[in-house]
Design a protein that fits this description.
alpha+beta, ten-stranded antiparallel beta sheet, 1 helix, 26% helix, elongated
């Protein structure tokens, strides 16, 4: 009788610790899950904060160093702001190194924002063709022009459908250097614009004056 009682006691103990171990391991999984969730939320929050500050910057031209790379009469909206965003295609967070500028009319003129020299240009000479698609363009940017300005900053204009300048050529602020398009990795007509200051990517909206005629991208 005593033995049976002892066995019951031991078995109950084993059951209790078994449950406890089980519980603690599922608790650990739960904690890990919550931590990952927390990290995701943090990233999403950062993305949102970026988005809000981008929106605040969108329609202000105060104190901006450079003009807009598209004529204000052609400008329609800004979309896909600089920084962390949620990719609509993969639904993952990714870094967008520039801003996307949409125009009212396809193939609107693209303008150099400052005096400088062309330091990269796609497609290369001989393969250049003024058309709606550059199959020989840069794999990502398609028709592309990169300008190193006299002040050291670098601007990149991507997805161009036409290009009026070539490597090592000097350009002036306000000069038409090409036309926007949907070449390279692009799903719709727009100008992808990047800006580097001191060789670091910056939010172009902090530096270029945004026309006030645009509508909100929503
Ligand atoms: Zn873009």
């Amino acid at each position: 009788m005593k033995f049976a009682l002892l066995m019951t006691f031991i078995m109950l103990n084993m059951l209790f610790y078994g449950l406890l171990i089980n519980y603690s391991s599922s608790l650990k999984t739960e904690i890990a899950y919550v931590m990952v969730e927390n990290q995701n939320l943090k990233q999403a929050m950062e993305g949102l904060e970026q988005e809000v500050s981008n929106r605040e910057l969108m329609f202000s031209s105060e104190g901006k160093k450079y003009p807009f790379p598209i004529n204000s009469s052609d400008f329609m909206k800004l979309s896909s702001p600089y920084g962390i965003r949620i990719s609509p295609i993969t639904n993952t967070l990714k870094n967008h190194l520039g801003v996307d500028i949409y125009t009212r009319v396809p193939r609107s003129q693209v303008i150099a924002i400052a005096d400088g020299v062309i330091v990269d240009s796609w497609p290369p000479p001989g393969k250049s063709k003024d058309g709606s698609k550059y199959y020989s363009g840069h794999p990502v940017y398609g028709g592309m022009v990169k300008v190193r300005h006299d002040d050291g900053s670098i601007a990149l204009y991507g997805h161009l459908s036409a290009k009026y300048v070539s490597l090592n050529e000097r350009v002036k602020a306000g000069q038409v250097i090409g036309r926007e398009g949907s070449t390279g990795k692009s799903t719709a007509e727009h100008l992808h614009f990047e800006l580097k200051i001191d060789n670091e990517y910056v939010n172009p909206l902090l530096w270029i004056a945004t026309p006030s005629t645009g509508e909100n991208s929503g």
